[in-house]
Amino acid sequence: MAFGRLERTQGPQPMSEINVTPLVDVMLVLVVIFILTAPLLASSLRLELPRTDAASPGDAPKFVSIALDKAGQAFFNDQPVGPAQLAERLAGAARADPQTEVQLRADAAVPYGRVVEVMGAAQKAGLNRIGFVAEPRNP
């Protein structure tokens, strides 16, 4: 037996590469957790709401359509009408609901004066909400 230094084995060397396997495992576990909990978060509160007639959903806004063709002929909801019939139908729509909107569609060739006459008839009947319908320009 000799008295000398004992031979040492070298310890493990530090790794210079990242081990990706644990990272992938953790990410897959997180994906599974999110998949399972997402439906629970969307509808977590169940309520049985009371029923009442006052809480009815809002009705769609009411409107009437007036169209003027190239000749200046008026159409009320796509039915041809004369000036007297137009005024009568507009008055009837105003009596039914004063908040009724008039959607005015006029051909580009219709004189401005004819459009103003129809607008005046609508306002005289009590319908002040008038919308002009147009098509967008082609790019």
In brief, what are we looking at here?
With 139 residues, the protein is α/β, with parallel strands linked by helices. Helix content is 36%, strand content 16%. The protein has a domain at 63-132: Nucleotidyltransferase, domain 5 (2-Layer Sandwich), CATH 3.30.420.
Side-by-side strand order of the widest sheet:
3-2-1-4-5
* CATH-level-2 architecture of the domain at 63-132: 2-Layer Sandwich
Average per-residue pLDDT, rounded, comes to 84
Structural class computed from helices and strand pairing: alpha/beta
Task: Report low-confidence residues grouped into runs of 5 or more.
Answer: none
CATH topology of the domain at 63-132: Nucleotidyltransferase, domain 5
SS strand fraction: 15-25%
**What gross morphology would you assign?**
elongated
The sequence of SSEs as H and E is: HEEEHEHE
For the termini, the CA-CA separation is: 99 Å
Tell me the helix content.
Answer: 25-40%
Describe it.
This protein has a domain at 63-132: Nucleotidyltransferase, domain 5 (2-Layer Sandwich), CATH 3.30.420.270. It has 139 residues and is α/β, with parallel strands linked by helices. It has helices at 21-42, 83-96, 112-125; strands spanning 63-68, 74-76, 79-81, 101-106, 129-132.
